[in-house]
Automatic annotation (TrEMBL):
Database matches in PANTHER family: MITOCHONDRIAL TRNA-SPECIFIC 2-THIOURIDYLASE 1, TRNA 5-METHYLAMINOMETHYL-2-THIOURIDYLATE -METHYLTRANSFERASE
Domain tRNA-specific 2-thiouridylase MnmA-like C-terminal: 279-352
Gene: mnmA
Name of the protein in question: tRNA-specific 2-thiouridylase MnmA
Subcellular location, record wording: Cytoplasm
Residue runs in coiled coils: none
The reaction(s) this protein catalyses: S-sulfanyl-L-cysteinyl-[protein] + uridine(34) in tRNA + AH2 + ATP = 2-thiouridine(34) in tRNA + L-cysteinyl-[protein] + A + AMP + diphosphate + H(+)
Enzyme Commission number(s) from the entry: 2.8.1.13
UniProt entry keywords in alphabetical sequence: ATP-binding, Cytoplasm, Disulfide bond, Nucleotide-binding, RNA-binding, Transferase, tRNA processing, tRNA-binding
Site keyed Interaction with tRNA: positions: 128, 336
GO CC term, one of those recorded: cytoplasm
Function: Catalyzes the 2-thiolation of uridine at the wobble position (U34) of tRNA, leading to the formation of s(2)U34.
Residue spans crossing the bilayer: none
Length: 374
């Protein structure tokens, strides 16, 4: 007897391939599906390693190997609306976005779960390294079994009502074991390399932004003194904490980007102490438990590769929260996600909001160099 009908998101990679094979082996009725994001006129070097036409072909072949039906679902419009357009808007507004968070939140675990229900499926399954745990209050998401591959950071925005309908068959495993299983199942993706880049960016983020956002000449200034130290072609080319590539006129200075002001096109820089955050405010909050059960002291992670740090919840409501770090944190970037944990359990998260700064008046040098930095 079938354990239920599952819509398995297949990307053409090894993780989702093994996910489909495991589900079939475990007795689920599996339907393979890939979400099409690439446009009709795909630019060269975009959507090449994941979410590509070639990946769709490989996913279909894996579905044939596993013995499950496969469908290519058109999500081009949603991808442009929820991922690409906000990506550009964020950089233009002085924020540093994380498109993978938006993709999981708005598309994979929102639109895809709704599509699964339309197709009569009980569950959606993916190859994420996340553990699904039956807790006393219902399904919980916990950090994956492979700490190097844990992907809970990207899933904080999952609608709470969707948790019970999502499966992660490889969530307890380490990556080498997943590849071993792929070999045992005879899957053609067993040795396929992983994709690391942003799928819709053809080369570098800087080049992509230059193609889509206008140049806006501005200045780089010291946040303590107001002294103008350089020029640039747009605040969108900078992020909080950036140290390299500032192009300061005084090349002996070591400075970090501390604050971005797109309205005046000013990049404010300072020393390392100026780039420390004692706390943060977050908006677009999402909680995977009752707000009343949110612990006052928890762990917060402000970047995917950052270590979680202890923090205190100063204030929280349905749409936002404020945190105070136990120790100041370097370069907390607005637009990035702050993700909340209690041990290994994912509690939710939000988008880091820009903090207000006291800014001195600009002081231009008597004679300006002509070089423009970017």
């Amino acid at each position: 007897m079938s354990k239920g009908r599952v819509l398995c998101a297949m990307s053409g990679g090894v993780d989702s391939s093994v996910t489909a094979a495991l589900l079939k082996q475990q007795g689920y009725e599996v339907v393979g599906a890939m979400m099409r994001f690439w446009p009709d006129h795909k630019r060269q070097d975009t959507f090449d390693t994941c979410c590509s036409p070639d990946a769709a072909y490989e996913a279909r072949r894996v579905a044939d190997q596993v013995g499950v039906p496969f469908y290519l679902l058109d999500y081009r419009e949603e991808f442009q609306q929820h991922i690409v357009d906000p990506f550009l808007e964020d950089y233009a507004s002085g924020r540093t976005p994380n498109p993978c968070v938006n993709c999981n939140t708005k598309v994979k675990f929102d639109a895809l779960v709704k599509k699964a229900k339309m197709l009569g499926c009980d569950f959606v399954a993916t190859g994420h390294y996340v553990r699904r745990v039956e807790g006393p209050g219902g399904v919980e998401f916990h950090r994956g079994g492979d700490p190097r591959k844990d992907q809970t950071y990207f899933l904080w925005g999952t609608p709470r009502e969707a948790l019970a309908h999502i499966l992660f068959p490889v969530g307890d495993m380490e990556k080498p074991r997943v590849r071993e299983l792929a070999e045992e199942f005879g899957l053609l993706t067993a040795k396929k390399p992983e994709s690391q880049n942003i799928c819709f960016v053809p080369s570098t983020i800087g080049e992509f932004l230059s193609e889509h956002l206008p140049e806006s000449r501005g200045v780089i200034a010291d946040i303590r003194t107001g002294e103008v130290l350089g020029e640039h072609l747009g605040t969108q080319h900078y992020t909080i904490g950036q140290k390299k590539g500032l192009g300061l006129w005084k090349s002996n200075l070591t400075r970090f980007v501390v604050h971005l002001d797109p309205e005046t096109q000013t990049v404010w820089v300072g020393d390392e102490a100026d780039c420390q955050w004692s706390g943060l405010s977050a908006v677009r909050a999402n909680y995977l438990l009752d707000l009343a059960d949110l612990p006052e002291t928890l762990e917060a992670q402000v970047r995917y590769r950052a270590q979680p740090v202890r923090a205190r919840v100063v204030r929280a409501d349905a749409g936002s929260f404020d945190l105070e770090f136990e120790e100041p944190q370097f370069a907390v970037a607005p637009g990035q996600s702050v993700v909340l944990y209690a041990g290994s359990r994912l509690l939710g998260g939000g988008i880091i909001e820009r903090r207000e700064r006291q800014l001195p008046p600009l002081k231009y040098p008597k004679r300006r160099p002509q070089a423009v930095a970017r």
